[in-house]
Task: inverse folding
């Protein structure tokens, strides 16, 4: 795979096994094969493209989207606040397009991450994304996580689901003491309902807001993504006590 970046910064992820047609002319596949990362290739009309080797983040950004996918800012907050590291044992649900699963699996590697999805059509989109990205350490289960979690001794469970509170009791059986149950919910009502079930957990709820700056004029961009979701990090203490 190749990542091509044009003079305006637009990015294209391509296999390189066929000629690539752009608005500025054609990039020949045989010419591309000779290029090393960091070199420049020209179309037959002389427009330049930088040639790079794609990273995992490039695959994730260009992945096919089915249901509403999580943003990278939220993925990174989830990983850092729950302490995910190489070897962490993680279960994720629902898979959706597999964006969060891919992001986290690239950190837990070589440990396999398991992700639960209830819908076959979304599972197919996610599996195709995993295949395109060459990601081998994800196991997708076509299963309703409200009915239970098969895995035990987990470090982290991540939820991006309409009714996350229905997973709390299962999570208590599956998490290691000290492990995290993380729920990503667009609405504060969902987050509150989840929070109210967290007997035996220590929790905090946050939002991640990023403001980009336009450095040519040295001021923030006038447009920004104001809200994506509330993220609750709940740490399992190992036993429940009446609240
Ligand atoms: C918003 S999407 C998740 C997006 C995902 N986090 C991503 O990064 O691409 C929610 C997904 O949860 C799935 N889902 C809903 N209820 C579920 C359940 N009980 N068990 C497993 N998956 C479920 C939906 O089918 C949908 O694909």
Result:
């Amino acid at each position: 795979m190749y990542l091509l970046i044009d003079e305006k910064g637009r990015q294209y992820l391509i296999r390189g096994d066929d000629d690539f047609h752009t608005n500025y002319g054609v990039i020949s596949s045989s010419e591309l094969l000779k290029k090393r990362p960091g070199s420049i290739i020209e179309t037959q009309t002389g427009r330049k493209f930088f040639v790079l080797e794609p990273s995992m983040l490039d695959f994730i950004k260009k992945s096919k989207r089915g249901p509403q996918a999580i943003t990278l800012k939220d993925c990174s907050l989830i990983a850092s606040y729950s302490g995910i590291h190489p070897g962490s044992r993680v279960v994720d649900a629902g898979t959706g397009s597999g964006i969060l699963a891919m992001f986290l699996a690239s950190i837990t590697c070589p440990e396999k991450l398991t992700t639960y999805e209830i819908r076959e059509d979304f599972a197919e989109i996610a599996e195709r994304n995993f295949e395109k990205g060459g990601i081998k350490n994800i196991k997708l289960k076509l299963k309703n996580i409200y009915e239970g979690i098969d895995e035990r001794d987990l470090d982290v469970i991540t939820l991006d689901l309409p009714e996350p509170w229905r997973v709390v009791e299962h999570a208590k059986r599956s998490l290691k003491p000290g492990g995290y149950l993380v729920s990503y919910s667009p609405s504060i009502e969902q987050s509150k309902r989840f929070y109210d079930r967290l007997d035996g957990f220590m929790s905090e709820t946050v939002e991640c807001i990023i403001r980009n700056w336009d450095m040519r004029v040295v001021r923030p961009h006038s447009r920004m993504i104001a809200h994506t979701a509330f993220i609750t990090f709940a740490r399992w203490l190992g036993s429940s006590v009446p609240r």
User: Anything to note?
Assistant: DSSP finds seven helices and 15 strands in the chain. The CA atoms of residues 42 and 238 lie 60 Å apart.
